[in-house]
Design goal:
This protein is mainly beta. The chain has one domain (about 20-329): YVTN repeat-like/Quinoprotein amine dehydrogenase (Methylamine Dehydrogenase, Chain H), CATH 2.130.10.10. The chain is about 5% helix and about 40% strand. It has a four-stranded antiparallel beta sheet, with no helix packed on it. A four-stranded antiparallel beta sheet has the order 5-6-7-8, with no helix packed on it. Strands 9-10-11-12 form a four-stranded antiparallel beta sheet, with no helix packed on it. A hairpin with a 7-residue loop joins strand 15 (about 200-205) and strand 16.
């Protein structure tokens, strides 16, 4: 499931799918061997499994993935430099507030922070005994951040990550499945938080995460990505090519015709408003109308995509099982 598998997986964000439960249990032995170790600089790290990518400011790109790998690029993804991190845990999510301040999170319930645009990283949270990978992390401002993950994992900070508190919301517990996996979190321009996860789970918060309201389940399968667009729409995607769009903050939904059965892992928006949905089997869908309709991008390979970053019109950086590469279309 892809931050479950892939990402935003290797629980998960590996190659899916179906490996999630194996990956969760499998990380325990690896953790015991790797606990306290820093990542190892590898000449081909840019070709290793990478699970997320994001901009740090207008120019720098930061990609994260297996073995604690973090890579940065200052030339639009043409070349990449690996940096040392204080973990060998698989990293599933990266989020930057500006060109200097960013966070990454992943397996072993690890959270790292940078204050210099990704050149150096420090550990803010680490609890491998929990056995709960973090699937996504999001910050509203320099104080409030939320990290979510497997088996109902919900961590919150209100001091920029100096301290993280685990919270449990009884209303988010699924009576049929126990604690569902929370896979994706996004925040709208007006401050609404939105979560999506396993077994059709959807929820929103209007009070900066103090309380959460579960929403009607419109689809029984899992979601792995959620995006609050510039115009206020919410887009979600997940298993078997299922994607939906809401223009009223999740009260009602319309199905997006993706014309694919591939798992959808990621949805991002560029400054010009264009939207890209990506996933397994080289799935790439482009929208120029706030996510209402999509144009598929044909690719000759079948390399699965975990996440994308939009460089400019017609140019993407993609990460996944083949590492990181630039794509023009």
């Amino acid at each position: 499931m892809v931050k479950y598998v892939f990402k935003k997986v290797v629980l998960c964000r590996v190659l899916m799918m179906g490996l999630c439960s194996i990956l969760i249990s499998g990380t325990v032995a690896f953790t015991q061997a790797a606990e306290g170790r820093s990542s190892v600089i590898m000449p081909l790290a840019y070709r290793s499994l990478l699970l997320d990518v994001a901009f740090a400011g207008p120019a720098r790109l930061v990609a994260v993935g297996e073995r604690g790998h973090i890579l940065i690029s200052d030339d639009k993804g043409k070349t990449w430099q690996q940096v040392v991190t204080p973990t060998q845990s698989t990293l599933t999510s990266v989020f930057f507030l500006d060109e200097k301040n960013g966070w990454v999170a992943g397996h072993d319930t690890v959270i790292l922070v940078t204050k210099d645009g990704g050149k150096t990283w420090n550990k803010q949270f680490y609890d491998p005994a929990k056995g709960q990978p973090i699937m996504d992390i999001c910050f509203k401002d320099f104080s409030l951040g939320i990290a979510i993950g497997a088996y109902g994992l919900y961590l919150e900070t209100r001091d920029g990550g100096t301290t993280w508190q685990e919270k449990y919301f009884e209303s988010l517990d699924d009576p049929d499945f126990g604690l569902v996996h929370f896979n994706a979190i996004t925040i709208s321009d007006d401050g609404m938080f939105f979560m999506a996860g396993e077994a059709g789970f959807l929820a929103r918060s209007y009070d900066s995460g103090e309380t959460w309201e579960p929403l009607e389940r419109i689809y029984p399968g899992s979601y792995f990505t959620a995006l609050a667009t510039q115009k206020g729409s919410i887009i979600i995607g997940g298993l078997r090519g299922n994607a939906f769009r809401s223009t009223d903050k999740g009260d009602t939904w319309e199905r997006i015709e993706t014309n694919t059965l591939a798992i959808l892992n990621d949805c991002v928006q560029a400054k010009d408003g264009s939207i890209v949905i990506s996933g397994l089997g080289s799935t790439l869908l482009i929208s120029n109308d706030d996510g209402e309709s999509y144009i598929p991008i044909k690719r000759p390979d079948r390399i699965s995509i975990a996440a994308t970053a939009i460089l400019e019109k017609g140019v993407l950086v993609i990460v996944g099982e083949g590492g990181v590469r630039q794509l023009t279309y």
